[in-house]
Amino acid sequence: xxxxxxxxxxxxxxxxxxxxxxxxxxxxxxxxxxxxxxxxxxxxxxxxxxxxxxxxxxxxxxxxxxxxxxxxxxxxxxxxxxxxxxxxxxxxxxxxxxxxxxxxxxxxxxxxxxxxxxxxxxxxxxxxxxxxxxxxxxxxxxxxxxxxxxxxxxxxxxxxxxxxxxxxxxxxxxxxxxxxxxxxxxxxxxxxxxxxxxxxxxxxxxxxxxxxxxxxxxxxxxxxxxxxxxxxxxxxxxxxxxxxxxxxxxxxxxxxxxxxxxxxxxxxxxxxxxxxxxxxxxxxxxxxxxxxxxxxxxxxxxxxxxxxxxxxxxxxxxxxxxxxxxxxxxxxxxxxxxxxxxxxxxxxxxxxxxxxxxxxxxxxxxxxxxxxxxxxxxxxxxxxxxxxxxxxxxxxxxxxxxxxxxxxxxxxxxxxxxxxxxxxxxxxxxxxxxxxxxxxxxxxxxxxxxxxxxxxxxxxxxxxxxxxxxxxxxx
Amino acid sequence: xxxxxxxxxxxxxxxxxxxxxxxxxxxxxxxxxxxxxxxxxxxxxxxxxxxxxxxxxxxxxxxxxxxxxxxxxxxxxxxxxxxxxxxxxxxxxxxxxxxxxxxxxxxxxxxxxxxxxxxxxxxxxxxxxxxxxxxxxxxxxxxxxxxxxxxxxxxxxxxxxxxxxxxxxxxxxxxxxxxxxxxxxxxxxxxxxxxxxxxxxxxxxxxxxxxxxxxxxxxxxxxxxxxxxxxxxxxxxxxxxxxxxxxxxxxxxxxxxxxxxxxxxxxxxxxxxxxxxxxxxxxxxxxxxxxxxxxxxxxxxxxxxxxxxxxxxxxxxxxxxxxxxxxxxxxxxxxxxxxxxxxxxxxxxxxxxxxxxxxxxxxxxxxxxxxxxxxxxxxxxxxxxxxxxxxxxxxxxxxxxx
Amino acid sequence: xxxxxxxxxxxxxxxxxxxxxxxxxxxxxxxxxxxxxxxxxxxxxxxxxxxxxxxxxxxxxxxxxxxxxxxxxxxxxxxxxxxxxxxxxxxxxxxxxxxxxxxxxxxxxxxxxxxxxxxxxxxxxxxxxxxxxxxxxxxxxxxxxxxxxxxxxxxxxxxxxxxxxxxxxxxxxxxxxxxxxxxxxxxxxxxxxxxxxxxxxxxxxxxxxxxxxxxxxxxxxxxxxxxxxxxxxxxxxxxxxxxxxxxxxxxxxxxxxxxxxxxxxxxxxxxxxxxxxxxxxxxxxxxxxxxxxxxxxxxxxxxxxxxxxxxxxxxxxxxxxxxxxxxxxxxxxxxxxxxxxxxxxxxxxxxxxxxxxxxxxxxxxxxxxxxxxxxxxxxxxxxxxxxxxxxxxxxxxxxxxxxxxxxxxxxxxxxxxxxxxxxxxxxxxxxxxxxxxxxxxxxxxxxxxxxxxxxxxxxxxxxxxxxxxxxxxxxxxxxxxxxxxxxxxxxxxxxx
Lengths: 475, 402, 496
Known about the structure:
The complex is a heterotrimer.
Chain A: H1 33-37, H2 50-55, H3 62-74, H4 80-88, H5 94-98, H6 105-119, H7 124-136, H8 140-155, H9 158-166, H10 172-186, E1 199-200, E2 208-213, H11 217-221, H12 223-235, E3 238-241, H13 251-255, H14 259-274, E4 287-290, H15 293-299, H16 302-305, H17 313-322, E5 323-325, H18 326-333, E6 344-348, H19 352-355, H20 362-369, E7 374-378, H21 392-395, H22 397-414, E8 418-421, H23 424-433, E9 446-449, H24 450-459, H25 464-467
Parallel strand pairs in A: 2-3, 2-4, 4-5, 6-7, 6-8, 8-9
Antiparallel strand pairs in A: 1-3
Chain B: E1 4-5, E2 12-13, E3 16-23, H1 27-39, E4 44-47, E5 62-67, E6 74-78, E7 83-87, H2 92-100, E8 104-105, H3 117-123, H4 130-133, H5 136-139, E9 140-146, E10 152-156, H6 168-172, E11 181-188, E12 190-191, E13 195-203, H7 206-217, E14 225-230, E15 236-244, H8 246-260, E16 264-266, H9 280-283, E17 289-294, H10 300-306, E18 311-315, E19 320-325, H11 334-350, E20 354-359, H12 377-387
Parallel strand pairs in B: 3-5, 4-5
Antiparallel strand pairs in B: 1-3, 2-3, 6-7, 7-11, 8-12, 9-10, 9-11, 13-15, 13-16, 14-15, 14-18, 17-19, 17-20, 18-19
Helix pairs in contact in B: 7-10
Chain C: H1 7-21, E1 27-28, H2 31-35, E2 51-53, H3 58-71, E3 75-78, E4 95-98, E5 105-109, E6 114-117, H4 123-130, E7 135-136, H5 149-155, H6 162-165, E8 172-178, E9 184-188, H7 199-203, E10 212-219, E11 221-222, E12 226-234, H8 237-249, E13 256-261, H9 262-272, E14 282-290, H10 292-308, E15 313-317, H11 320-331, H12 333-336, E16 343-346, E17 349-350, H13 356-369, E18 376-382, E19 387-394, H14 401-418, H15 434-440, H16 443-456, H17 486-489
Helix pairs in contact in C: 1-3, 8-10, 13-14
């Protein structure tokens, strides 16, 4: 007979909180045993997990990753295998949506990643890559500086040759270059170094005061998205406040286990926005609005991030209480400005950090449905990540490329003219994937942020502007 | 405990003389008989109403003709649970009469008058309703059997939903009495429909038959049966049976009318509904070659084309047809009949199906490959060896000499 | 013959062989990764397998099974690992063969009403592939968005709609499988009634003990013209049960009839805010589908019968969104009880539908008599076919509660057996209920089933230890049965 080891009295849960000894983790916020205990091993997360969809392996599913955490808590030492599978997670949180038992995988993987960063020695090359990523992406100024050289490289057609000769396959430049090049390609040329005004008055009756977060990638590469956000908010009767000297929200750091770094960013963000309104501080604004999904999910989790900091815990809660995605604010307020017809077919792509992490699915669709003449098409397998996932596409290029190819194919299948989403990372990823799937009969497709579509409708712009926006037609 | 044994009626099985006839009246008696005959390794051929006793190959020997007709009667009918348990020798008609009292029916057609529950199960015989209700295999939920070694066993149960243990019942369906002796069966029942209507269209070609069948099968009218009947010239009719509530049947009949363009309609079954095409009253022959053809639905046209010249009946909508190949004097040598069978078998195989010669005149059987190629035959032989290691039950009647 | 070679050496040789056959990632040997495979959907049984292999195609899978046969290494096949009976519980000295990468939908041929799929294909994906052509795959286990067709074949999975449409066994027309000696055989196919024994009928539901399927041909069903879902609130399960009986007696066969009692309604409300009728002691979810003229007529009957039997509120959903709202509460029920109880056991048993009121009363009495342990039972079931899913709720922190809950759970199975029902309607026997088989079947019954096992797998290397409480030594001829058949003893069957 098989040696079976039933845990007495336990019915279904994979974790038994009583049996833990410290194994892979230290005492500072190890993966929460009680949260792990909520997993009943039903497997409903499997088909929604991008890496399980790719590889079909238990270890690269949420259920498997939770199991590895449990092993770590049970006393198994932190080993390369565990770290590899946790690293492979895109953090798309699709599993959180799918889970019928309410397992907080998002919290658990963040807790685990912070432990990994503290205790796991990565190989030199990987360390260097991660160092470079975190020295670059959370810094809008540095990102902006990069734009010139990349463009020059691209224009001369040297980049491919350079990459081939100068770098080894899989080397740093090889990995970074496509991503940065996609960013550059999507950025309108000759964009003036436009600064957002500090205060934009509401049009008509003021319905709300909104402080706006401008983001890092959004600010450097998609300044027109920020401009459209401010215009739409103003048109809908919002007074818009844009605090100066905004830093990174800490999302990339949180997602990669760099907890202390994330906390630094979060404190700075709170400091900045507490001064948003000169007279009343944070109390003077109704909402803090963000138009990048990845940032939004982190901003809405500051309370937990700073829970152990007595100086910031309650301030974080106050700040978090005001954070809304742009779609939430606009949907909540309801339309005030007139929508002009926009005869256009769009495919709406759910950004993972909007749909899964923030549960914002209906609002963007309602907003699009409110535009006369606009047809919205759904994309097959909407719950599966496009592979962008913050800096995942740089750290795991093969997996990201394959997910991007699949997502691009699904998007192309809709036959829509414009792809609409609410996250800069998704736009970048899909843009770099669609040309690669030319054999799928890909046609040039415009790409726009949700607010750009609303902006075009409110301003009565011609639909062609969106059709050619960041067009995938690279010829 | 009463026991009847004796020489009753025919004592030959498809030309093979039976040593004696035993007519047990209970499962216990069947068990005792199998134990008694084990020592001498006597062979037994179970039978019911003997309506299909010549089907398959003649047995290698039949020391005992095991007549189960005394194992007769409905044991239990639970109307509220939609189940019935009957002894194997019970005529199907008797079961239907019993359950009809509460507005229910066993969704198995009586394809030959007098056929019993056990015989229908052993030969996996089915009629028009297979399209909506499946066959014995789909309706059998529990079985009592007696093994060759006399052991009495049950499988399944009396509830429709049950996944405890192997579905031994399915193995027995269509096993021609070669694995065990079935003494009692429990079936799932269905309500008798309040209304039924037949719509019949004339068909003059295989193409037309295929088109009309396709139209009604892929529509959303949930036909209870889609049957075809063709004479040797290829002329005949396609009928769809609609069953259900009066409003529902009327609504669906309207859809079929549109699809088929003015079919004849009736509240009564067309003549010969569900009968085999080799019925002597139709063919005028005592015993024609009886063929069962199965194929992918999309193969209907090709099969009908190839079968022109034969009398055809069957479930066009389910991919199962029956054909009668006349062998009256002067209508072909044994070789020619065998060649026709193989040609038809070829077209069925091309459409991922099979052809079985269910029955044929005794003189012809040796010239025919009755069962055709049987995939996984090795496994089947191993199953036979486990259940009946001495090959005492209906030896030689079934596939691969089983 | 099983070689006398020690198991460890055999595993070592099998591992070496697997490395030759599979891509490197497809052979898992390190402990951390192996442990992620140590349980399926029934997580309180855990066995770490000696080796996990993840083949890419049927050829590789067959090669692995052949190697197992040669080396005498036991194997267990696993799909998505969602089973609730421990059917895919690994073998400590064996290999776990994972089919999750065999997930191609090879053909969808609606003109033949067939789809051909690999075993790792997810159940719901078959429907997704067929829906554009107006067809779907009828069996719909609650886990249909994740469970695999291979697992469905092994367990003969059911679902809410099998009342009208039947189980997996009615919708699988053929398989290609690897037998335990490594031979690849085809059973059944596209066309009906393949000559010979219905081995396919035996293989479906055999829980992986007769081999591993590598390709499955499925019957596709035409989408119904109309679907209507009715939600009816009753004051008690007795009223709801009477309504079910009345519906059946009226000759209506709905696509599904589901019942939930007060406790499970409470859990569902807590989890998904399904807004079922306030104050209901039981709700029925009745789904009708088919041609619209029939559905309309049946709908009138159903609402009338519910009201006649004491329904105080009847709601109707006719579009997908409204239907989803009604089903949301029912479908969330299992996971939702986690919100009202720290621990629970999901039971799966079947009774004749007419025994429902009595069995429910006895279940309530069982919970009450469990005394201070605080065990409660929430009832969710497929009322149309008498398939109970009692959820036995307890708090493991209370001394003795776990044992009391298990005792109640066991007693519920005894009730099912006593009423002539079954110990499992859809979750399977697996590891969990193998000991209970001897309570439902006699020795001879089990022995007869194992004759089939001996024909397929005389060395018992395919999922050993599952389904049967004690293995039969193949080739052995057991003596005559002693004593009385358990069903006869229970007064449920006579020997004639």
